[in-house]
Amino acid sequence: MTYLAQVDLPFDAAAKLDLRDAYDWHQAIWKAFPGRDGQKRDFLTRLDQRREGFRLLMVSQIEPLRPPWCPEDNWKAKPIPESYFTRSRYRFQLCANPTKKVGKAMPDGSLTKNGRRVPLARREEVVDWIKRKGGQGGFVVDEVTLRTFPRGREYFQKRDRNGKAVTGLHSAVELEGVLSVTDPARFYETFKRGIGSAKAFGFGLLVIVPIEV
């Protein structure tokens, strides 16, 4: 079973809870899945700033519980029926952190196999990236409807293994348009698994709305 949870939180309430950046939200969200310290994360999130405050979406394979910091009136959770994933076309929205590996040059002019990851800057690169992800994930994107625009750089602070504060950075890109499902089973797995990197920090959740034919 797959579950969808939604939290709507006014800006002042988030400020009182010290929810300032992606890492703060990352830690707060874990409280919806108590008793799982040390376990692998198996849920996806998306956080948007709206006129009235923050909207948080969570997709998980186990039922989330309302975390103590979230008022009861601000929490909604329900299972997603399997029939929701049987349609052939969907409108989609995706906040992603598309990257590519850049190898480090060696003295002999060759490149290392395991290079550092850098964000994709050009639209053409982002389009190619989502097309590859679709080919791997059981869907194809309609390029005529596809819109991409940067959400900007998102900084966050966290503690390293030695307890030292370090600053991290993600480059967020918003994609939206229409997709067609080519392999329903793989598409469902893609929805559950998410797309791209930095999923622990609010990237990769595929928001889909069926298109009635």
> Secondary-structure element order, as H and E?
EHHEEEEEEHEEEHE
Shape: globular
Radius of gyration computed on alpha carbons = 18 Å
Number of helices: 4
Helix content: 10-25%
Structural class: alpha+beta
Q: Beta-sheet strand percentage?
A: 35-45%
Q: State the low-pLDDT regions, or none.
A: none
The total count of strands amounts to 11
Sketch the major β-sheet.
5 strands, antiparallel
Task: Give the termini separation.
Answer: 26 Å
Mean pLDDT: 87
Would you kindly provide a written description of the structure presented here, covering whatever features stand out?
With 213 residues, the chain is of the alpha+beta class. The protein contains four helices and eleven strands, in the order E-H-H-E-E-E-E-E-E-H-E-E-E-H-E. Strands 5, 8, 9, 10 and 11 form a five-stranded antiparallel beta sheet that branches. The protein has a four-stranded antiparallel beta sheet with strand order 2-3-1-4. Strands 6-7 form a two-stranded antiparallel ribbon. Strand 2 and strand 3 form a beta hairpin.
